[in-house]
Amino acid sequence: xxxxxxxxRAIRDxxxxxxxERNAAGLGVLTGPRTGARRRTLGAVRLIVAEYAGRCGWxxxxxxxxxxxxxxxxxxxxxxxxxxxxxxxxxxxxxxGASPQEAVEAWARVPGAAVLLPVGRSxxxxxxxxxxxxxxxxxxxxxxLRLGPVLLTPTGRVQFFVAPGAAAELxxxxxxxxxxxxxxxxxxxxxxxxxxxPPSDLAxxxxxxxxxxxxxxxxPHPPEARLLLGTLAYVSHRDRTYA
Length: 243
Known about the structure:
This protein is of the alpha+beta class. The strands form 2 sheets. It has a 5-stranded antiparallel beta sheet. The chain has a 3-stranded antiparallel beta sheet with strand order 1-2-7, with no helix packed on it. The radius of gyration is 18 Å and the shape is globular. It has helices at residues 8-16, 36-54, 100-108, 130-142, 166-176, 225-241, and strands at 61-63, 114-118, 124-129, 150-152, 157-162, 186-189, 194-196, 209-212. Helix 4 packs across helix 6. The chain contains 6 helices and 8 strands, in the order ααβαββαββαβββα. Strand 4 (150-152) and strand 5 form a beta hairpin.
């Protein structure tokens, strides 16, 4: 079954309403009149969060927000080191497997928060530059490999979801494949890291979107990193060599 509740139409609707949002200190809540359109936007985000938690099997963490174009963080700390790109310390996470009702009710308490997914539990993430990442995705799909979700960030990075443990195994995997002595624009996110998920902005820089949407029946079982790493390393190296 395809990713239904968090459909691209719902995500586009959310993005169109972003112009009416403002981030308030502590939560980035909406200010001004709560029109019907804005209520529908909040409702769409809650349903997407419920989909992530209940059907994809991911924990979801309410995150801080930054003003459009980057700027002050909604956490209120003027010295914040990661404006708009970190969990809200006072907001509890929605656990993986939460029922739709539990997820919707929990997210209703943090309106306007960014949707963050903790890495290192249900998945790790291999992060590469956008151009080689797009080419690698085409290659991997043509090879018929089972792939997990793939994100595109507004900072020009492509993020491949892989089985947890990849971050710890990455140096050894690169060594076994002969890539350990090569400069690669490739890194792996693991325990303690977070990725921003649609329909949220990344640190106020622009929306994050799916290049390959999560399929709820497959999302809890992302592929092993070793199945993707050879292609990702090769394409990344080729991109740097011929840049």
